[in-house]
Structure formats: structure tokens, C-alpha cells
Design a protein that fits this description.
about 150 residues; alpha+beta; DNA polymerase, domain 1; 2 domains; 7 helices; binds FE2/S2 (inorganic) cluster
């Protein structure tokens, strides 16, 4: 039975077919910015905002996203880099870049909630986002910069 999803301000009708949100975003809506890495909720590469809160879309059943506002990395910027994205570039806060969309989604949610976060706030909010390249110090600096704390 088809359901309706609100993604980046647009409405889509999709067949859940037992799928997770990440599969629909990438395979059907062609929003490839959200990444599949572990596929089991352990890395945050697939993070999207659900009503402003970061969730791992690789775990979320499509039905559970119905009635919520979903924002992917593509929906954050509306054609222009956000302050968080600019700060990641300025601080060179990535190496391979695979984890970066999820990092930016989580950082954006943090700064919406806590505009001037402490280091502890950042560590807590970003604890679900792993970076195999170990870019953590630069990611932290980027978030501080975006918050105007750098
Ligand atoms: S791919 Fe979803 S948490 Fe790792
Ligand atoms: S920049 Fe490579 S995994 Fe984070």
C-alpha cells in the first residue's frame, strides 16, 4: 500500500515494501548524498533529519517516517552552502568525505538546538557519527567555527 513521504519540502508517494528510509532516498528519490556504510545503525553515515532530529535512515522503516518532515543533506542547503558546510570546508574537516553528509546533518541539528555548544555538547551530539579517517579534531573545530566559537 503506497504511503506519502515529505522529503526536502516535496511530497512523494512510495511503496514501502518493507524497506528502510535510506533505500527509498537513494534508490527511488535519487538523493545520493545520504550514505550507506554499516547499514546497522552504528556509524551515522546515513543520518537525515526527522522533524529536526538526526536519525539513522538505514534503520528507519519507511512507514515510521510517514507524517514527519524529512530533510537530507541535499535539503539543508537549498543551492547555497550553509554555515556548517562552509565551516567544514574552511577547517578541511574531511578526508575521504564519506561520513561528511552525516556529520553535517548531525552538526546542523546540534546548532539548531544549542547555538553555542561546548566541546562536551559537540562530543555528545556527534558521538553517533563515526569517521574512519579520524578527522574528529577538524570536525570539532568546524562546528565551533560555524557556531562562531572558533
Ligand atoms: S549506514 Fe546507517 S548507521 Fe551506518
Ligand atoms: S572523512 Fe573519511 S570517513 Fe570521515
Amino acid at each position: 500500500m503506497p504511503v506519502t513521504l515529505d522529503v526536502n519540502g516535496q511530497r512523494y508517494t512510495v511503496e514501502p515494501n518493507g524497506r528502510r528510509l535510506l533505500g527509498v532516498l537513494r534508490d527511488e528519490l535519487e538523493l545520493f548524498g545520504t550514505k550507506l556504510a554499516c547499514g546497522e545503525g552504528a556509524c551515522g553515515a546515513c543520518a537525515v533529519l526527522l522533524d529536526g532530529k538526526p536519525v539513522n535512515s538505514c534503520l528507519l522503516l519507511v512507514e515510521a517516517a510517514v507524517g514527519h518532515e524529512i530533510v537530507t543533506i541535499e535539503g539543508l542547503s537549498a543551492g547555497r552552502a550553509t554555515a556548517v558546510q562552509e565551516a567544514f570546508v574552511a577547517e578541511d574537516a574531511l578526508q575521504c568525505g564519506f561520513c561528511t553528509p552525516g556529520q553535517i546533518v548531525s552538526a546542523t541539528a546540534l546548532l539548531e538546538r544549542v547555538p553555542t555548544p561546548s566541546r562536551e555538547d559537540i562530543h555528545e551530539a556527534m558521538s553517533g557519527n563515526l569517521c574512519r579517517c579520524g578527522a574528529y579534531p577538524k570536525i570539532e573545530r568546524a562546528i565551533m567555527r560555524a557556531a562562531g566559537n572558533a
